[in-house]
UniProtKB/TrEMBL annotation, chain B:
UniProt keyword Phosphoprotein, yes or no: yes
Protein name (record): Response regulator
SUPFAM superfamilies: CheY-like (SSF52172)
Lineage of the species this protein comes from: Bacteria, Pseudomonadati, Pseudomonadota, Alphaproteobacteria, Caulobacterales
UniProt keyword list: Phosphoprotein
């Protein structure tokens, strides 16, 4: 059991590191997430893990903490019609505006990879010539990225949102798990990115997916991340948010599908 | 109200499936093997069939073949629900005419996702 003052310290550390909103009153949640991390990192008790964090709040353990408290389950093809709309409408329009140059797509909080892989599989299965794309994916969590890159999912994970036909077409069985084909995995480039850091080194993207992350963040961090993502949009680019995510001052393009544009961009094209 | 026939030789599985499907707004009937399921379908075709594979008497695959050959037998969406997790066998089920496939063990979230994909969500 972690003491209330320690929970407040842990919540504050998550806020500082990643803008993550953690309710320090949620003792059960915090206890249940911290115990396995403490064990994995070799601490005798959650208490010792907290002591180590207090002794070195900037160290590697602080990221283990953030990863533990930000993990969230997700499905393949979450809100399926959004993927259909992106592949059928948004990506071809972006490609047309590009004159044949590949469209740069970034899944900015990719977790274990279900979102970007869903898009990759749809593109691979699209009839005719699929839109030329470069697919990038990033997450704050090294562990999530390792899992995503491996493309290895449990029987429970693989059944969430993934149609059986897609499963047999793109996966192989490996023990009790299912592994995505190298062909699809090789379509993605991975990188660890904290969306609170300077993102300019990543370049600009025509399509950025950042779905269901913002509600996990504190209000200040939400605004900061939205502003950062807008700056990472190429001219004419589109930002895709979760259907109930906060949208700040973004301009709705296809709000029924969570598709938005930067406000400066809308002003430019209106002029 | 949409109807679902749950075909499984395990009473426990039928009970679990019934609870999940009723929560999703289905009216549920049960059959304990393929023969009993055929009798149900000859009387009235359900909107959907949740189908076990291994059952004594007529198994799921044999039932599916016969169902699809019946008049009106193309109509119900058939979702296999089996402990078989070999991908070649899953392909076989799909090629025989199954619309979807659930690997046991399953939960309400998995069933709801499959129904949503098949356009059967309430």
């Amino acid at each position: 059991m972690i003491e209330p003052t320690d929970r407040a310290f842990l919540a504050d550390l998550c806020l500082q590191r990643a803008g993550l909103q953690v309710d320090p009153e949620k003792a059960y949640l915090i206890d249940s997430r911290i115990a396995p991390v403490a064990r994995r990192e070799g601490f005798a008790s959650p208490r010792d893990f907290v002591d180590a964090l207090r002794a070195d709040p900037d160290g590697r353990m602080s990221w283990a903490l953030v990863e533990a408290l930000s993990q969230s389950e997700t499905d393949f093809f979450r809100d399926r019609r959004v993927f259909v709309h992106l592949v059928d409408e948004v990506l071809p329009a972006l490609a047309a505006a590009h004159g044949g140059q590949p469209v740069r797509v970034w899944s900015a909080a990719c977790g274990a990879g279900q979102e970007i892989y869903s898009l990759a599989m749809m593109l691979a299965d699209a009839p005719g010539t699929p839109t030329a794309t470069e697919l990038y994916a990033s997450d704050l969590s090294e562990r999530a990225l390792e899992k995503a890159q491996a493309g290895l999912y449990s029987q429970f994970e693989i059944q969430r949102g993934l149609p059986a036909r897609t499963l047999v077409r793109h996966f192989e069985k490996q023990g009790d798990s299912f592994v995505l084909s190298p062909r699809i995995r090789q379509m993605i480039r991975w990188r660890r990115v904290n969306l609170l850091d300077d993102l300019s080194r990543l370049g600009q993207f025509d399509l950025i997916l950042c779905r269901h992350l913002l509600p996990q963040l504190a209000p200040g961090a939400q605004a900061l991340v939205l502003a950062q993502l807008q700056r990472s949009l190429a001219p004419g680019g589109r930002l895709v948010l979760g259907l109930r995510d906060p949208t700040g001052d973004l301009v709705a393009v296809d709000p029924a599908f969570g598709v938005y544009a930067a406000p400066s961009e809308a002003a430019r094209s209106a002029a | 109200m949409k109807t679902c026939l749950v075909v499984d030789d395990s009473r426990v599985i039928r009970k679990v499936a019934r609870r999940i499907l009723e929560d999703l707004g289905f009216e549920v009937a049960e059959a304990s093997d393929g023969l009993e399921a055929m009798a149900w379908c000859s009387a009235v075709m359900p909107d959907m069939i949740l189908l076990d594979w291994r059952m004594p008497g007529m198994d799921g695959l044999e039932f599916l073949r016969r169902l699809r050959a019946e008049p009106g037998g193309e109509t119900p969406k058939v979702v296999f629900c089996s402990a078989e997790t070999d991908l070649d066998r899953i392909s076989e089920a799909l090629d025989t005419g199954a619309d979807e496939y659930i690997m046991k063990p399953f939960d309400g979230g998995i069933v709801a996702g499959k129904l949503d994909y098949l356009g059967l969500a309430a």
